[in-house]
């Protein structure tokens, strides 16, 4: 690493500045759209003439995979642009794309239209969080940036609850229109938001910016990057498997009544609001990102065990209560992205902060077949074997994440004004 060219110190922002507010509201709309399809999946596909249960499941998974594919592509695209063109261009460009895609989703008449628009929406959704966290981290003082990213996440994840409420009460088309309208309205707040001073200084150096492949050409740098990715996997194991498959797990656990994925998502994301607030505050109070993440991963392990082994024959109310607490336990999402951003220099920071969360989200694509494969290896993918498979896959992902956190350098209070060689 080498320091950036010495110029005047980068301008710092207040904790509740326009930068923090816009990043937080942008993430709010981002989460709204990200979760909305899972909530309106059945209703929207039925309207398009897909009514058979198997077809709804298969086509729904196809749409989710297209959205996820868009996010993986968008993560790389926006990350590179964030380091080459600037954090602001990515922040507002991504908001514009997913807002327009949202509005267009409300007009779809065919499955093909729906598929391509979810791909485009996924590309747009990939950029906001990484750009927002990077901009906040670089514009707040090193003593306050943890609080800033905590605000972004706490406000942002509550967008899932609005998505559930709007989707349930106003229909799927109107829900998409609301999401798009919120995003476009947010663009009006761009006045008063300025570019990162660290990025402006990095532009004056001769070092190459936004070279995604530079993450793979240096051994220690690659290991650092992979460890950052692994920290986020347990969260998406919980959301992508335990919560998304809530009806199937409820059946396997012999609950006294049916449960829905929609309410599971609502309660787990409600928990995430509190978890992100607590984890961010804890990292500041302990003056350590590492210890805060270790505590939350241990908490998550306990709650995964409760979900899988302590709910047999329980009521749906007890199940949703555990979903809420499980959501609290994985409320380290912004802390994870903050750590990823703080591990790298200004010329690669946006690339890492944008690709890391999207690749972590994309881990669901690998986790689902692994989960199913383990269940089949244990006998059948139903009943007790599903519980055992969840324990195996969840346990391994948590152990690996704990190792990754424990072996990364501590970044609390780290000076971020440097570039990678």
Automatic annotation (TrEMBL):
Localization in the cell: Membrane
UniProt xrefs under PANTHER family: CARBOXYLIC ACID TRANSPORTER PROTEIN HOMOLOG (PTHR23508)
GO cellular component: plasma membrane
Pfam families: MFS_1
SUPFAM superfamilies: MFS general substrate transporter (SSF103473)
GO molecular function, one term: carboxylic acid transmembrane transporter activity
UniProt KW Transmembrane keyword: yes
Superkingdom of the source species: Bacteria
Protein name in UniProt: MFS transporter
Membrane topology label: Multi-pass membrane protein
Keyword Transmembrane helix tagged: yes
Segments traversing the membrane: 12-40, 60-81, 88-108, 114-135, 147-167, 173-193, 225-246, 293-311, 317-341, 362-381, 387-405
Domain Major facilitator superfamily (MFS) profile: 19-412
PROSITE patterns, alphabetized: MFS
Major location (coarse): membrane
Gene3D superfamilies found in the cross-reference section: MFS general substrate transporter like domains
Keywords (A to Z) from UniProt: Membrane, Transmembrane, Transmembrane helix
InterPro entries documented for this protein: MFS (IPR011701), MFS_dom (IPR020846), MFS_trans_sf (IPR036259)
